[in-house]
Design a protein that fits this description.
The protein is an all-beta fold. Strands 1, 3, 7, 8 and 10 form a five-stranded antiparallel sheet that branches. Strands 2, 4, 5, 6 and 9 form a five-stranded antiparallel sheet that branches. The protein is built from no helices and ten strands.
């Protein structure tokens, strides 16, 4: 993925009441969502995974949080960590606990 220096960097807050699919960024017709950085914290030990659309295609592996470290952190990557499919929302699948945090992204295409 080449850097998209012309695309505006946007920010989203991640919050959920419990486990399940969390829509982090709503779909935009004809656009991909490129995640540049993320910080996710869980309310209890569990798992998180990024998906293209709710219950959609996995864009990351399952990331495990334990009681020793409840944080998943993806540092800034100007090329992006991953992109959704065009016209798909960016979702986070929380396996067992609520998630909260933030991310930086661009709309591409």
């Amino acid at each position: 993925m080449p850097p998209s220096s012309g695309a505006q960097v946007r920010y989203a807050v991640i919050t959920s009441a419990g486990a399940g699919d969390v829509e982090a960024v709503a779909a935009v017709t004809g656009k991909k969502i490129r995640v540049l950085s993320y910080y996710i914290r869980q309310s209890a030990a569990g798992t998180v995974r990024f998906e293209s659309g709710a219950a959609g295609t996995a864009m990351s592996g399952v990331m495990v949080t334990t009681t020793a470290d409840l944080v998943v952190n993806g540092d800034y990557n100007p090329c992006g960590h991953f992109d959704t499919a065009a016209s798909a929302a960016l979702s986070i699948e929380a396996g067992t606990a609520a998630v909260m945090g933030h991310l930086a992204y661009q709309l591409i295409g």
